[in-house]
């Protein structure tokens, strides 16, 4: 299968601009994407709940407001999908689990409120790995979403924000919310050919989110382009009195800081010791990324990491299990139906005593300080998002942490990172690279990623066969 270089799916920022200019209505956009959901999602399995009537009603109201000269905000009329870990008042929330009947939320997550206040239309809730504990994107109890880059072989979408990434990649939403505890925004974004942002802890409120590991959990956007996730970040970021962990950060108006000269940027590249066990196509694409960055005038610096990625994975994995068991252990010890692999990861935390947990937190802080000191001479780190491209679901070995290799250390050290498309394998499967920055350096990281995106334009390539395999309607002009 070869990728299709024809942009039939509008990016979030393009859709927003078209609606603002009166070239597209929200009703037309919502109608088109609901038609795609109807045609595609029986196979792709991205959504767990679609708010059809509500979305159409909201779109009609937004169109009427625009005709009257009123716009709610920068997302006026565009569509978003929400990972099924966020509360939306009156809607079921299941967290990817069938262990207990989905409860109806009594409140709405702050980030969803902010999206709606900016004019976004929520299309529905998306699939997730059970309680967001897994990077492959598989869900043994609710079914695994289908990566839209191969309609013949059921390939992994990546996780845990599996449904959110599939929905955006297939044009069933303009953007989506995910969560990232050890790569869960970046991994699926990378495998599905999208942009995914892991935010600094505290930048985005987690009020109304079912958490797994509070020391690592973050909320982040998924979309087609860097400017899309920057626009979403502008809307959802900011302090929240309902989340004690949220802070008043120095990050301001990220979308207004994307342009600018990046020549002279100091880029920390992967040391030779960490280039092992990477799929050849991914390594070749990564080296191509480095060539592009050099052409853009950036200075490449190879240096050793203060702590190996494998050691970071070990510490982060233990913290996830310990905190996951503290939050969910009472549930998982019951004789209920669970994904057996998620259950194993959660119950592993039962064997981590308090003294060991405190020791892990000390190791985390030591590693964080060492990494921040090591990053002083550079502006950003660049490395693969995933060591492999999307394998078939049948090939998955759930005991392996292959997809967490380049993801977990970012959460462990509370850095920020954005995954962006970086090419394709010979099978036409997306390859991704991530730009990793210091805490609160989202504007810088996104500006560098935007420069790379503009130089390569991989975002213009869409999955092949979606239009041919599924009968859909195109959005009509206003």
Automatic annotation (TrEMBL):
It is an enzyme of class 6 (ligase). Residues 29-446 form the Amidase domain. Gene3D superfamilies: Amidase signature (AS) domain (3.90.1300.10). It holds the Pfam family Amidase. Its EC number is 6.3.5.6, 6.3.5.7. The keyword Ligase applies. PROSITE patterns: AMIDASES. One of its GO terms (molecular function) is asparaginyl-tRNA synthase (glutamine-hydrolyzing) activity. The keyword Ligase applies. Keywords: Ligase, Transferase. PANTHER family: AMIDASE AMID-RELATED, TRANSAMIDASE. This is Aspartyl-tRNA(Asn) amidotransferase subunit A @ Glutamyl-tRNA(Gln) amidotransferase subunit A.
């Amino acid at each position: 299968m070869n990728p299709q270089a024809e942009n039939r799916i509008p990016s979030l920022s393009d859709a927003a601009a078209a609606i603002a200019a009166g070239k597209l209505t929200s009703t037309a956009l919502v109608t088109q994407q609901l038609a795609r959901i109807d045609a595609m999602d029986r196979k792709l399995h991205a959504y767990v709940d679609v708010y059809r009537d509500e979305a159409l009603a909201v779109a009609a109201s937004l169109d009427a407001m625009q005709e009257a000269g009123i716009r709610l905000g920068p997302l006026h009329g565009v569509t978003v999908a929400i990972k099924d870990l966020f509360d939306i008042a009156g809607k079921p929330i299941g967290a990817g689990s069938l262990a207990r009947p989905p409860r109806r939320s009594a409140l709405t997550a702050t980030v969803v409120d902010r999206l709606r206040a900016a004019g976004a239309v929520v299309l529905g809730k998306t699939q997730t790995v059970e309680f967001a504990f897994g990077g492959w994107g598989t869900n043994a109890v609710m079914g695994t979403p289908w990566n839209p880059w191969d309609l013949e072989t059921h390939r992994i979408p990546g996780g845990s924000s599996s449904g959110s990434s599939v929905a955006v990649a297939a044009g069933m939403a303009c953007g989506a919310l995910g969560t990232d505890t050890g790569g869960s925004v970046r991994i699926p974004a990378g495998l599905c050919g999208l942009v995914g942002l892991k935010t600094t802890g505290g930048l985005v409120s987690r009020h109304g989110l079912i958490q797994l590991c509070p020391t690592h959990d973050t909320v982040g956007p998924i979309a087609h382009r860097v400017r899309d996730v920057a626009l979403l970040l502008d809307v959802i970021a900011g302090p929240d009195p309902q989340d004690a962990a949220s802070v008043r950060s120095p990050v301001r108006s990220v979308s207004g800081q994307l342009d600018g000269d990046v020549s002279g940027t100091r880029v920390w590249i992967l040391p030779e010791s960490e280039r092992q066990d990477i799929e050849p196509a991914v390594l070749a694409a990564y080296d191509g990324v480095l060539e592009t960055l050099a052409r853009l005038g950036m200075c490449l610096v190879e240096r050793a990491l203060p702590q190996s990625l494998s050691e970071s994975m070990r510490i982060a994995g233990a913290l996830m299990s310990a905190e996951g068991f503290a939050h969910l252990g009472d549930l998982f010890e019951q004789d209920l139906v669970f994904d057996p692999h998620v259950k194993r990861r959660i119950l592993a935390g039962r064997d981590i005593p308090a003294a060991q947990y405190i020791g892990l937190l000390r190791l985390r802080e030591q590693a964080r300080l060492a990494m921040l000191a090591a990053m002083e001479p550079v502006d950003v780190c660049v490395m693969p998002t995933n060591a492999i491209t999307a394998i078939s679901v049948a090939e998955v070995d759930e005991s392996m942490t292959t997809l967490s290799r380049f993801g977990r250390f970012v959460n462990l050290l509370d850095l920020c990172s954005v995954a962006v498309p970086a090419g394709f394998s010979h099978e036409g499967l997306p390859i991704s690279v991530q730009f990793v920055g210091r805490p609160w350096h989202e504007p810088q990281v996104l500006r560098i990623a935007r420069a790379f995106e503009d130089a390569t334009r991989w975002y213009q390539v869409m999955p092949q066969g979606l239009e041919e395999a599924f009968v859909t309607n195109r959005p009509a002009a206003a």
